[in-house]
Amino acid sequence: MAGAAAVQVGTANFLDPKACTRITNEIGQWMDATASRRWMRSEGAHGKSPIAFPSGGSCPTIYILLAFLYKICYYKLNNIQEEQIMAREALEVLKECEAFLEGHFLLSSGRHSGAYCQMAFLQQYPDKAAEVMAPVAEKLKELNIDVVVGPAMGGIVYAYELGRQMGKRAIFTERVDNVMTLKRFRINPGERCIIAEDVVTTGVSSLETKRVIEENGGICVGIACVVDRTRTEAPSPIPIVASALKLDLPNYAPEECPICKEGKLPLVHLAAAK
Fold first, then answer.
1. Is 158 exposed, middle or buried (0-12, 13-18, 19+ CB in 10 A)?
2. From the first residue on, what is the mean pLDDT of each consecutive set of 10 residues in the chain (274 residues)?
């Protein structure tokens, strides 16, 4: 029952990001109303468990299940809040480096957007790149990664930084005659590899690097990136296991662009913005 409850909470969170907050509050209200909180003790945050069972005596099964569910919601909510804080901090760093621009931009696809990520600008500042990648490296530590693989050019710096912070080997793939290859390095059979990218929009371009990893006997665990721009309706074909921040940056066909219709901001070609 407790396991099923955990699955249900996780599913609910996909539909409503505030589900954990609501469930936690409502369980607390119910337990206050039924005096069942005498079986628990709240100790607050800072890494301590909010639930502690009393020594001695018996605890009804329903209270044990409720305590378990309460704890799941508590930690899930804390994790969500921590990730939101880190994402806001990462976005502020990108803005300081002018790696995240807001305005009216003409993308290489011909579509228009109100924001644009130029991650090369972040690479100008090694200390800031290290700061942004720190939470990504922390998330990867539990995945038992052996090698970080960055496709040239955009992924090289971030692969190096992740490898440095995790104490792992960092290599890069590159194009030879327009084919992605592992020209300078090797991957040992069975090594667990993570692909390091700057921005992931569709994840399709990372498939070439995944192919190289697997052709050399490695295991592709997934993608780690600075900015995850994938959409729910179009997920990446390779799982994104860690990112510094998730951004939903809509873009528009020129004839449908609301910024054009508003007429307040001039259209900037990205070549001119660099």
1. buried
2. 52 62 66 52 46 48 59 53 58 89 84 88 92 93 94 93 96 93 94 94 87 96 92 86 88 90 87 50
CATH number at residue 258: 3.40.50.2020
Q: What is the pLDDT of residue 252?
A: 87
Same domain, yes or no: 48 and 149: no
* Last residue of one domain, picked from the residues 56, 87, 118: 87
**Domain containing 59: what range?**
2-87
Q: Per the confidence metrics, is the pTM higher than 0.85?
A: no
152 and 256 assigned to the same domain: yes
For the chain, the DSSP string reads -HHHHHHHHHHHHHH-TTHHHHHHHHHHHHHHHTTGGGG-----STT--S--PPSSS---HHHHHHHHHHHHHHHHHHHHHHHHHHHHHHHHHHHHTT-EEEEEEE-TTS-EEEEEE-GGGGGG-HHHHHHHHHHHHHHHGGG---EEEEETTTTHHHHHHHHHHHT-EEEEEEEETTEEE--S----TT-EEEEEEEEESSSTTHHHHHHHHHHTT-EEEEEEEEEE--BTTB--SS-EEEEEEE----EE-GGG-HHHHHT-S--EEHHHH-
| Same domain? 77 vs 199 | no
Give the per-residue pLDDT at 229: 85
204 and 246 fall within a common domain: yes
